[in-house]
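Field: COMPLEX_INPUT
Field: COMPONENT_COUNT = two
Field: RESIDUE_TOTAL = 703
Field: MODE = joint
Values follow.
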Amino acid sequence: MKIAWIQDLNIFSTGGGAQLTDLGHFKEGLRRGYDIRLVLPDSDAAVPFGCDLVIASNCVNFSTDFFQELIKKQKPIIWFFHDYFCKWRLFFPMIEKCKNCYLKPRWLPILTKSPLLIWLSPLHRDSWLWTYPELAELPYVNIPSAIDPNQFTDLGIKREGVVCSSGLLDFKGRPNVLRWAREHPETQITFLGGNDHPMEPLPPSCKDIGYYPHMQMNDVFNQFVSLLHLPNTPQPFERIIAEAYLGGCKIIGNHLVGALSYDWFTSREKVAEHVRRAPQDFWESIEKALERDK
Amino acid sequence: MKPKILWNNKDFPLLPSGYAIMGRYILPILGDHYGRDNVIIYAPVYQREYMDRWEDMLVVPGVTFDYGENYLLEHYQHHKCNILVQIGDVWGLGTLPDMAARNDVLWVQWCAVDWIGMPKNVVYRIRTAHKLVPFAKDGEAKLRKAGLNNVEKAIWLGLDTELWKPGEPGESMMRLMGFTPETFNILMVSANQERKAIRQQIEGIATFRKANPEAQVRFYIHTTMKRDRDLFADIDELGLADITHYPEEYLMSMGGVSEVEMVKMFNACDVVLNACHEGFGYATLQAQAVGKPVVYLYEGPSPELVKYGVGVADMFTYTTSNQMCQAFPHPAGIAQALGTVWKWKKEGKKLFSQKAVDFVQANFGWNKIAEQWIGVIDRAMEDRVHFCHDIPSSSDELQNRSLEEVVKE
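Field: COMPLEX_OUTPUT
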């Protein structure tokens, strides 16, 4: 089966969360013998039209007309959502106005033709249904981010303080973590992964150490007792939560973390099992959906 | 919430230019409606390096003599504006289209469309405007035909309808213009620019004069005589020096005459000559305001502004270095049109149309124009919310959910 994998970004060269997950699923698809073509915004737009199946991952750089054409040509499109179809994409405010989002009339007719919708967590799906309740009737599956649990383990070294990754970004809940820091002045908090307001002074118990490569994150997690993550908008999954948990950190999160909305997020063993088999679950769900639609 | 408007008027409102006059009349009305503190006037031309207040509204400076885009964004952000209204030509815009594409400004453009077709370089410049408000229905049709989906209903430019009325010009004005009740009095009020087709029009006067030797023609041209063209040379070459009057160079360099004098000037003539491809055509409208016939070009907005006059077909086009194709009349067409008006005069008809006067009074008062602008601004502000121009705050429910900690040991 020929499959077009539509992505805004090259999953082989950029390392954001969505790309890492896509890469895990992509490799598993190849292992299963599928002929998968990665379609980027500057790729030959005709490629998906010659495929049997389209998997639409991050795709804000592709037009709705393009997807409408694919539907006209009877190409099944499986939607693998990483964020939200919101103007602000990563920052879904989930306000009343979102129910009447101006983008909805463009996307709804396309999405409702899908044989399968894939979200990253129950919270992710629930948040989508705020704007698109019509999708509740469609076949779906929630599949966590693809993570290799062997890369994230408790090394048994001495730990101290709290780490907070991306917490100084506005859309990741900057006000919440700073409030938490003020309420827990005795706790040392180390921030990493970006700061939207670098000139703004942090509470004395906080320090910002900048970016760390993903490959070094297990070593980072093993230095800290806890990982703090308090977003103020619903985060689809947050692979860092699962990674830090597997890396031995206690998680201090909230109800807006997609990973924590899974009922199996109760032990490290269960988390390891689910994130390890995410690529298999991903393809099995697709195979079942296609079988159902035959 | 009342919007905070940055209005790029291009000129300080007290100056005598067309852009300045627009600002002079419309801004106080908008200021009264939205609050004078909520209207910031950006006037980069002639108003540099300092801030000022005019009619209780802040005037902020720029430092360029063109479109003044250099400080737009800074003023917009510093004064926490919600909407930028920019007046004028769009072909020269430089950085503003990119600012709008980046969501940095909510840009509404009140624009002239004085060309045929739609050059790509212009489309690229204007497609990021939130709303394009053409000066005339002709421009609206052209922008829509080009496939732009941000086009609003045209809003005509206004006129002080209390001032622009039929009236007696007075003897001194007639004398200054070289006019008498017996002569056939032609008025042209125009910037000395190639696009104004002054050469073709005065050639038309020369041709008309040859064809109608009995007509005692008098021509008053209100312009700067030496700019794009040396009109002294043109008039001399065409043999019109004996019938032509023009203003002093010093007077024009000081900004011309007051609007009160301009009204008298229009009331003094038999016919206004303005047969060029206009973006709007103030001289045409002013002629109609005092009920005088106008010789106008069929191309552009003039046909929608004229209730009393003689139209001239465009006979050739010229494409500028900006790929803008502009229409020009043939001198023979001008001569023929003048002949028609001359025939009316010879027949003893009063060269006056109450219908034209009523049309201007009913449609061009600044209150009426401002009312339409308030509609545009209010709709743009609604769009600002609907299209999420600003990152919204997350809902209260989300805020509450985010405060409830979930701990996994």
